[in-house]
Amino acid sequence: MDALILAAGRGTRLGAVGETTPKALIDVAGRTMLERVADCLVRASADRLIINVCHLANQIEAFVRTHDLGAPVHLSHESPEPLETGGGLLHARELFRGNAPFFAHNVDVWTDAELAGMMRAHERSGAMATLAVHDRASTRQLLFDEIGLYGRLDMRTGTGTQSRDPVGTTINVAFAGIHVISPAIFERISERGVFSILDPYLRLAGEGERIASFAIDGARWLEIGSPERLEAARRAFES
Description:
CATH superfamily: Spore Coat Polysaccharide Biosynthesis Protein SpsA, Chain A
Oligomer: single chain
Order of helices and strands: EHEEHEHEHEEHEEEEEHEEH
Structural class: alpha/beta
Number of strands: 14
Number of domains: 1
């Protein structure tokens, strides 16, 4: 099983810390986020890790040469700028093996949710992709109905997008930064350049593909996207 760790971002919200240290290598209570995320994925049976890199890529390269992450590592280099989640996934396409579903996991989030169970749920569902979601305060919400993803909402601007009419009961939830993706998606991505993976997800949902959700409510979930959240994550691990 392959797993893609999304680690190319610039970490601009982290201020001075993000300017000198890639998010992947930020220390959280004695271990880097890269090590913590890799450990979660290996415990979920990933036996090969793909890491996309751009910002301060040389630091990540040096780290993986000298540290055992529990599985072989392949790097996907993006230049001159990060390609975001969708562009980064497409750029790494040739590094994936076979026809098995794979994980994609943001390097700046951590959870103790059962990722192996998420993979099993994805395989049973027949979905093109399955997204880990939970009920947390967020200005960006994904819209799901009884079929799957059908839209998104940006509460900062009061704007939203629906790719199709909802069916039955609907929910608004926050994305947790973890996906299981079927490799068939590569043949269906028409977007190019720098783009969010949510763009093809919503388009494909409108074309009849199922983009499923996997609730991780009740699991611990931490994110280090800002100095305040980084400090909260450090306190949580230390305790």
